[in-house]
Amino acid sequence: MDLFRRKSVTALQAEAAGDHSLKRALGPLNLTALGIGAIIGTGIFVLTGTVAAQNAGPAVILSFVLAGFASIFAALCYSEFASLVPMAGSAYTYSYATLGEFIAWIIGWDLVLEYALSATTVAIGWSGYVVSFLADLGIYIPAQFQAARGTVVTMADGSTVTALFNIPAVLIIGVVTTLLVVGIKESASVNNVIVIIKLAVVVLFIALAVQHIDPDNWKPFIPPNTGSRENFGFSGVVAGAAIVFFAYIGFDAVSTAAQEAKNPQRDMPIGILGSLVICTVLYIVVAAIATGVLNYTQLDVPDPIAKVADHAGLGVFASLIKMGAIAGLTSVILVQLLGQSRVFYSMSRDGLLPPFVQKIHPRFRTPYITSIVTGLAVAIPAAILPVRDAAKLVSIGTLLAFVIVCIGVLVLRVREPNLHRPFKTPFVWFTAPMGALSAMYLMFYLDLQTWLRLGIWLAIGFAIYFLYSRSHSRLAQPGGR
Hints:
Layout: H1 9-18, H2 28-39, H3 42-56, H4 60-84, H5 91-98, H6 101-136, E1 152-154, E2 160-162, H7 167-182, H8 184-209, H9 233-244, H10 250-256, H11 264-293, H12 304-311, H13 316-349, H14 368-384, H15 387-415, H16 428-444, H17 448-472
Antiparallel strand pairs: 1-2
Helix pairs in contact: 2-8, 2-10, 2-11, 2-13, 3-9, 3-11, 4-9, 4-11, 4-15, 4-16, 5-6, 5-15, 6-7, 6-13, 6-14, 6-15, 6-17, 7-13, 7-14, 8-11, 8-13, 10-11, 10-13, 12-13, 13-14, 15-16, 15-17
């Protein structure tokens, strides 16, 4: 059935080896930094607070442990695929080689949503920290233009103003899009610097704030459930894990840069697993400190880590931490927009999207049209959407991608057991099923509205596939492969 026609793995490997349209400029350090750049961001600087306040209390620590546990299984499966099929496109390309074109389209379309809304969510968090930092300097952005439309902003004198438009979020999307058009090496170099800055700031926060922990703030560790599945109790901890799963999209973004890695067979697993392990440890430690310094009920703010720093009386260091958060969120936006444009690029190369999408800039050798279109598509919702609902939709998209990748690894092991695999998922018959099941378990804890929004997005994707992509696919053409 042509819905499940597949690209052969050997054809993909030959295509990767012979395709020099994208510049191979990234080594293992770049790739690990790319992952850290994407993972250390909104999860640590924004969602730590909102999930503690609304879902898990101090047990947000366990939410990050659960999310990291599920991510490790998926990361091992991603590593096998990324070394086997070093192509831009991530889970989309892997699905095309294992489960067929229609499943690949679903996951590609899902990744479009995942990356775009991830960048949107992070841009909103970036705006909150910038507004707070500028206020420390005596510079005030008018309240109407510092948050999503309809958001009630409380002024210093206690009065309230309803926001209309989030200007800082739109500006940062414009700057990052321009950087991505200029070039992947320049983008990676900027990201490396940003990653060093924000890691230093996170370590500084840990070292200074740990002295101000009050153990009483961890009591009760898991607040009693309020009657709603999402609000506290163990179900709230799991729901929190499903929401913060958004934060673990970073190692997936590493895999989208496979075609720009110098030695993808060796370096992709290093970048994926290295960034995930480093960041999971940091998430757990920061969540423990934040809820230990300040009662979890006070953390439901756009800039919770800054609030913890202020409460701990860190003085000038509080401003440094806000700067680190701003830098950290900037690098996340960069990596998400990079991943989004590379998925578009891969889908266009396969004929599933129009040819102009894969056009490469003659000087910069980047897919500049997809970068610009992505930037515009992200800037609009960043201007008008609140953060929490967008984060849930990103999480469900990420979890769906993880389920398909874990299943795909098993399918390929059965279908083509003799392929040379530079990296093999250890204990694959345990690891891959656990990755798929743990991701599905977390998806179950996301609310019905999030599922409905995913369904609407996928319905739009089905329409595009059957009206355009199915007939224009390279595999549908004579001699296509």
